């Protein structure tokens, strides 16, 4: 299958997960992610603003606020076709932006070098920690410059044995699902 065929199939699968089951899965993923933050004494994180059928990141954001973990969110710069990062203290600092995804409305710039953990969205992941996103390449370009851990968040249904990989595709270090943690470090 091509990346586009995999993307379409996985988006359909993810969209069709029952809402009650999805809530349980989100709780398990958030708990595992938070345990990773605690175990590794993480001080700063880049979260994505979950939307649609993506793994929910709002429980993680609330935890970070409560524990004073510096939290950044990405904003699409349409001119450079890259993600810019901004520190966020409260959800009210996010407004609809690129494709109506919530983005920072603050000017407190964050640098990728200052981020300990990057939560990475994806449509599909494989057991070698490669991912397929939505096709914009934003996270592949961002991960080129990472210093900390990149962690993909996915429902177990999004994991496949092997994805087609191109030279520009970047791996994450770990994938946290509702059933397991896949490590590639």
If you had to describe this structure to a student in words, what would you say it looks like?
It is a single chain. By secondary structure, the protein is of the alpha/beta class. Helix content is 26%, strand content 26%. The chain has helices at 3-15, 19-39, 58-66, 138-143, and strands at 44-46, 70-77, 82-88, 94-96, 102-104, 109-110, 117-120, 124-126, 131-132, 149-153, 159-160, 174-176, 181-183. It has an eight-stranded mixed β-sheet. Strands 9-8-11 form a three-stranded mixed β-sheet, covered by helices on one side. β8 and β9 (131-132) form a beta hairpin. The protein starts with a helix and ends with a strand. 33% of the residues are buried. The mean pLDDT is 95.
Largest sheet at a glance?
Answer: 8 strands, mixed
Total DSSP E strands: 13
Oligomer: single chain
Which percent bin holds the helix content? 25-40%
Element order: H for helix, E for strand: HHEHEEEEEEEEHEEEE
Strands of the widest sheet, in order across it, are: 6-3-2-1-7-10-12-13
Alpha carbon gap, first and last residue: 27 Å
Count of DSSP H/I helices: 4
Enumerate the spans where pLDDT stays under 50 for 5 or more consecutive residues.
none
- Indicate the proportion of strand residues: 25-35%
Q: Which structural category fits the helices and strands?
A: alpha/beta
What form results from the Cα inertia axes? globular
Mean pLDDT, to the nearest integer, reads 95
* Rg result: 15 Å
